[in-house]
Design brief:
mainly alpha; five-stranded mixed beta sheet; 25 helices
Length: 547
Amino acid sequence: MNGDNADFCAVGAVGGTAHPSGYPLYVMWLRAWSWLPGTPAHAAAVATILLAVAAVLVLHAACRAWGARPLAASIACALFATSPIVMRIHTEADVFPLNCLVCAAVVWLAAAEGPLRGTRRAAVLGLVAGLGIAHNLTCVLVAPIGLYGVVRGARESSAKAYALAVLGLVVGLLPYAYLLVAPETPVSWGKVDGLTELWHHVLRRDYGSFKLSPKGDELFVAENLTQLASSMGRAYLWLPALAGLGALGYSIARPDKDTRVGWIALAASLVLAGPVLAAGFNKRPVELGLWLTQRFHIQSVMLLAIPVAVALTLAGERVREQRWKRLGPLAAMAAFLGGAALSLPFVARVHSVAIERSLTNLLTTLPPAAIVIGTTDELHFGTGYLQTVLAVRPDVQLISLGQVGLPFYRDRIARRSGIVIERPSADEKLSVTIAEQALATGRPVFIDPYQANIAQAFSTYPYGLVFRVVPRGATPPTVEQVFELNKQLYARYQFDYAFPGPGDQLATQIHRNYARAWTMIAQGLEAAGRGQERDEALGIAAELAPR
């Protein structure tokens, strides 16, 4: 259960405002399907899969509208639907399946052979564009093909098509009104009161409007473009992807001016949603950074399906008709089954319950009324889902340092714990000040593994997945006591899943944290001359490490 996934599962179940830009259309969809059986996370995943299925169906229609044969469109869509990152994202609560549905609809409606003509084409394109913007701002990256479709609609009818397109756009933006009436729940990103706050939230000002990550301004252009190329190539098993790029160039070079303009617009959308977007990522695409950035590749991977389908059509024209009719269905089935077979092992690993189990293990073994100071989105949103939706240890107070700059979050912390977060003195870090205030409440205080400033200011010792902070002047337990305490904690932990390997993203990081705690305990035991206990601790570390 990654950060975004946990956030959407929570607001889908109990309501509220999701993290910026709010994604109101998607949240409203999740709320509408929250009655589905199973856990709220399962209900959100099923609701998202319905969007994914619709996206593939509309994509198939778009391929047909751009000149692909039915079988060629089926093969291209099968490769898209079963590519690793698409299967991973389209089967969990995430914004990108609805992104794909919106963008596929724009490409379909804009095509010369699309389902509508004239003013209806322009009006519906405007409506879909508005709904897309009311979902995720990255939908604007297909604006070139959308504008091409509106111009085509006006040429097919009259200039009033432009006015209808604008009207449709305005109507499509109405889901943003949900943010103004959404209740402030314990998992809500504050309360949006008024148009100024709505504008602030939509533009992601809390993150930095044009930043993928709020941390750092360095761009990793070459690495992100290389990973984008890898995602696009792998999605279509490389050769069809290259053929699709060739077909795109061939279609642009055709003498038919009207056709060429459409393909140029499609190519421009592909470039914007692919290389231009990826080049602006301020996150290195390795390990957890790769997990974050790969999701943004899906839109360009989907757009590539159109020229891939056309390339397969051109290839099929060289095959005798009867042979194509016989082999085509087999090829489409092979593309789907083969793609799924290649992707499912990866999807099964990264959809591990390791993250949810780790948070449950943490919460259920903390002392009453504990305070945990942490940083990661998984800790912040994941515990919010478990505590608010599933009622797992609501007495535990999490303080997410990534959120303390937000006024609504500071107010929420003050109401729940009495801790008033203010600016630190000139010679003290904010995290250390918060730790001081938390300890002053008399409640047990813990930190996640990423709080170096607190660990330098206070004595700490491993406590399962976190570290307990020892108040100044108090005597920390001996290393032998820490060893025995952690054995008792880990005896209560649940590991009812296949352990991750070294490249299984978030699950891998969780198990590195498990192992690191025991490695630290082993080092302390070695320094104390407790060789037998050291070997036992190292054995536990090896058992818990990614395999």
